[in-house]
Inverse folding.
């Protein structure tokens, strides 16, 4: 999927700036606006002046969404679905949590259209509510965005999704930090961006090596959303 995403950036960037994308900045774990502004600094620094960068962001987001949509088949063919991801999403959706309802959504650096496209490419879109998610095109740090997403869920479902019943499934130390700032428990998965040790050191509430053990995923989410007195030690 990384190669397809790079190709989409390489198409969208010159369409908006008139400059070739010679060097693409680091993308993993970062929002689309962060990547775009860094790409400007690396490839078209003069466009950062006089508010030009901010005016270019919206048309760039639209071009990037169109470029990725045109590559949907490539996403499916070249992307990789993490083992156990679909099974875990399905199992969590069946959980009856403390509020007698379990709601799943996404918190991502991608814009909403691109997040929807990527999950649909692998048949995962049916498990999440995109309407309450948090997306990279919104002007919030990720920790704040988590709080915004929780407020959206509370408003839609007419129940309060407090900090104690919210779990952020993360795969990087930066996401673990966002969970702490956003008032959520963190279940970190060592899927390749960070090791289990790095995730523990970052302060994750629980760590898994991957998502292949669906029972472990659901057990930990249940424990993380129940009173700590019942489960004093979570690994």
């Amino acid at each position: 999927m990384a190669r397809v995403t790079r190709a989409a950036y390489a198409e969208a960037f010159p369409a908006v700036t008139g400059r070739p994308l010679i060097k693409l900045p680091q993308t993993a774990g970062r929002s689309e606006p962060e990547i775009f502004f860094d790409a400007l600094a690396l490839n078209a620094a003069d466009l950062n002046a006089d508010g030009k960068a901010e005016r270019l962001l919206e048309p760039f987001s639209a071009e990037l969404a169109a470029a990725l949509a045109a590559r949907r088949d490539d996403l499916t063919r070249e992307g990789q679905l993490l083992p156990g991801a679909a099974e875990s999403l399905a199992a969590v959706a069946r959980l009856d949590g403390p509020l007698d309802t379990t709601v799943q959504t996404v918190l991502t650096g991608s814009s909403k259209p691109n997040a929807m496209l990527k999950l649909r490419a692998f048949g995962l879109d049916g498990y999440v509510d995109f309407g309450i998610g948090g997306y990279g095109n919104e002007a919030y740090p990720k920790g704040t965005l988590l709080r915004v997403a929780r407020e959206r869920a509370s408003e839609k479902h007419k129940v309060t999704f407090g900090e104690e019943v919210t779990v952020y499934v993360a795969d990087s130390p930066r996401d673990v930090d966002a969970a702490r700032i956003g008032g959520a428990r963190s279940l970190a998965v060592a899927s390749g961006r960070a090791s289990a040790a790095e995730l523990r050191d970052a302060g994750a509430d629980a760590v898994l090596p991957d998502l292949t053990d669906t029972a472990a995923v659901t057990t930990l989410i249940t424990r993380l959303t129940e009173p700590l007195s019942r489960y004093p030690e979570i690994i």
The two ends are 31 Å apart (CA to CA).
